[in-house]
Amino acid sequence: MRIAVVGSGYVGLVAGACFADLGHDVILVDNDEHKLSALKNGQVPIHENFLPELLSRHRGHRLTFSDDLQEAVRASSVIFVAVGTPPTERGEADLSYVESVAREISGAIKGYKVIVEKSTVPVYTSDWVRRIILRNGADPELFDVASNPEFLREGTAVTDFLFPDRIVTGCDTDRSAEVLREVYAP
User: Fold this and answer.
1) Is the dihedral of CA 92, 97, 100, 106 positive or negative?
2) d(C-alpha 139, C-alpha 156), whole Å
3) How far apart are CA 5 and CA 73, in angstroms?
4) Residue 72 burial (CB < 10 Å; 0-12/13-18/19+)?
5) pLDDT value of position 119
6) Which residue ranges of the chain lie beneath pLDDT 70?
7) Are the CB atoms for 183 and 1 separated by under 8 Å?
8) How far is CA 93 from CA 9, 20, 83, 86, 149, in A?
9) N or C end of the chain: which has fewer CB within 10 A?
């Protein structure tokens, strides 16, 4: 399956490398050219057991890096949104990056896509993301929005991802649930 992972921070980088290790073709998207250049050149920005090995094994083959979100969306069946949601001054999650990604995704939806919220977000964020995508002109029949929270521990994130004790998904349709079952089947 072709997967786009938006955001190359802790969750996105680990997820992208692990999805590639599960046999999927992954496009890891980020708007930070410096970070993308470092990743393309073999640098690993975080210390995580087994991550350098996965990146080395799959870089340029099953795992590619891009700054073109719309092209990644067009090329993928599933788009995981793993962008930062830093706390605001009031302690709430800042969803501005999620909103920006949702707006940009909407212009690239030409065939059925499952957009999966993987960032740490409040309950009902997937409904909000769906509304943003609809308001920006996407056909409601061509996408579903799902949630897939992450349970990764620092230092063991790769093994937590590849050998989970649970995989939690929230889907509103059988179609999107089946796609996520296929993503995690390996």
Assistant:
1) negative
2) 40
3) 9
4) buried
5) 81
6) none
7) yes
8) 16, 29, 12, 6, 15
9) C
Q: How far apart are CA 125 and CA 130, in angstroms?
A: 9
Q: Kindly report, residue by residue over 54-91, the tens digit of the pLDDT.
A: 999 999 999 999 999 999 999 999 999 999 888 889 98
CB 20 within 8 A of CB 54: yes
- What is the per-residue pLDDT for 1? 95
- Spatial contact of 77 and 3, defined as CB atoms under 8 Å apart: yes
The DSSP secondary-structure symbol of 106 reads H
Cβ-contact 112, 83 below 8 angstroms = no
Closest CA to 85 of 3, 172, 12, 158: 12
User: Exposed, middle or buried: residue 44 (CB in 10 Å: 0-12, 13-18, 19+)?
Assistant: middle
Q: How many beta carbons lie within 10 A of that of residue 62, not counting itself? A: 19
Six token digits for residue 180: 């996520």
Judge whether 42 and 56 are in contact, CB under 8 Å: yes
Rg of the chain over CA atoms, in angstroms?
15
